[in-house]
Backbone:
């Protein structure tokens, strides 16, 4: 069995908690455990200045799934799909026999304390806490960071615009997430509250990075990360949706923008635009008989 | 599932086809309206369509039907061999801007499923807006016993049905 040594934190966490709802929470919990419980040999990506997201952790979770140690279930949520991670019976057995004996009792106690402290939070709250803490450690000028982020958002948007085809629901949503994020960042710019700006910037950065990563795969012909058949997504990867779910929830709580998923077409469109949309529908109905 | 005492059914083929095609239809309609927040409007419209479609599937019986494709193919072949009906097929082809006179494979599949359903039911109304079916209601009824009901006639059909009910 091939299990990376660094994945012991992930296995410990899932054994201790039973299940973790959303990949966003999984990522942030491992991040907090590694940092606060001072567990050595962790995921390197956390040192990246963009923020606490680890592609290695994401990759390890797939390795553990392939080994049958954990399971990941895609759940259709009220607004967006999300992941639920659980340890399997085989995973529990492997953990008891091979992982647990290698962890010192002090590390175990520290990890338990951190998990008990943070696991009670929803993924929305936990992500906000982590983005906030990260800002204090690393950030100086948040406004210049937002400017850079806006340029990157524009670049990623341009890529997805060239890849867009109307049959693909995933790209339709990706472009909407990017447009919403741009609007939110523009709205938050005049705010003096650096924490709000920073949390939003961190989350938008994570979304942008993830969409940029997927872009590399999508740009390859005949390869689709969304398990698409004939270009149509059957099961879109929930991790992208989870981050956006956080962004829109945060924007609503901070009165930056209402949630996209709860907006009406009349709110998003001008009166003229809405009339045009109604006309296109009536044209469609009229053309159905020939 | 019953509406006004009538059993409403659809097939897995129709469900799959609709699921595959509605994002494109929704996006194209939104694009025609040219809204400023185009991408967000597309997503909101798509979400609304998804929700409505889910509601629709929950209100009808989705059946896995196995039709005889050869019978339907033979039927349309017969139509294309007859000069009178061939001209009507030609009209449909022009309207649909398609290359072939024959319906698409998925449409043939749907028709064969409806025909199969007719075998086990008293009266089957085949609700459609597809020109390949709406143009040949008499021929389809004679061949398969199905009553083609164009979507635009559905409301009128419902009123007539209610009037009959009241008179009884």
Residues:
């Amino acid at each position: 069995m091939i299990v990376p040594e660094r994945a012991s934190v992930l296995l410990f966490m899932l054994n201790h908690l039973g299940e973790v709802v959303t990949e966003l929470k999984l990522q942030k919990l491992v991040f907090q455990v590694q940092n606060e419980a001072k567990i050595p040999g962790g995921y390197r990506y956390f040192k990246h200045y963009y923020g606490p997201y680890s592609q290695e952790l994401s990759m390890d979770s797939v390795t553990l799934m392939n080994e049958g140690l954990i399971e990941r279930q895609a759940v259709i949520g009220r607004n967006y799909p999300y992941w639920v991670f659980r340890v399997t019976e085989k995973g529990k057995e492997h953990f008891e026999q091979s992982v647990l004996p290698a962890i010192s009792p002090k590390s175990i106690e520290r990890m338990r304390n951190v998990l008990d402290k943070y696991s009670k939070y929803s993924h929305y709250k936990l992500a906000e806490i982590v983005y906030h803490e990260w800002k204090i450690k690393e950030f100086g000028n948040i406004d210049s960071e937002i400017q850079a982020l806006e340029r990157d958002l524009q670049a990623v948007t341009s890529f997805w615009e060239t890849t867009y085809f109307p049959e693909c629901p995933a790209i339709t949503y990706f472009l909407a997430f990017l447009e919403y994020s741009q609007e939110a960042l523009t709205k938050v710019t005049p705010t003096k509250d650096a924490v709000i700006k920073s949390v939003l910037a961190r989350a938008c950065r994570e979304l942008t990075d993830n969409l940029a990563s997927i872009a590399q795969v999508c740009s390859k012909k005949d390869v689709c990360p969304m398990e698409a058949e004939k270009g149509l997504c059957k099961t879109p990867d929930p991790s992208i949706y989870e981050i956006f779910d956080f962004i829109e929830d945060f924007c609503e709580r901070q009165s930056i923008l209402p949630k996209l998923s709860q907006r009406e077409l009349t709110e998003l469109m001008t009166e003229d635009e809405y009339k045009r949309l109604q006309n296109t529908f009536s044209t469609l109905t009229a053309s159905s008989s020939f | 599932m019953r509406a006004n005492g009538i059993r409403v059914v659809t097939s897995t083929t129709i469900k799959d086809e609709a699921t595959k095609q509605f994002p494109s239809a929704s996006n194209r309609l939104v694009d025609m309206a040219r809204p400023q927040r185009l991408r967000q409007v597309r997503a909101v419209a798509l979400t609304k369509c998804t929700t409505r479609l889910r509601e629709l599937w929950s209100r009808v019986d989705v059946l896995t039907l196995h039709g005889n494709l050869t019978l339907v193919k033979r039927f349309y072949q017969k139509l294309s061999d007859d000069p009178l009906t061939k001209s009507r097929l030609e009209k449909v082809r022009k309207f649909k801007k398609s290359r072939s006179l024959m319906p698409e494979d998925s449409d043939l599949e749907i028709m064969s499923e409806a025909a199969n359903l007719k075998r086990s039911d008293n009266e089957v109304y085949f609700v459609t807006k597809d020109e390949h079916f709406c143009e040949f209601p008499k021929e389809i009824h004679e061949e398969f016993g199905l009553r083609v009901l164009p979507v635009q006639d559905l409301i009128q059909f419902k009123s007539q049905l209610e009037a009959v009910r009241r008179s009884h």
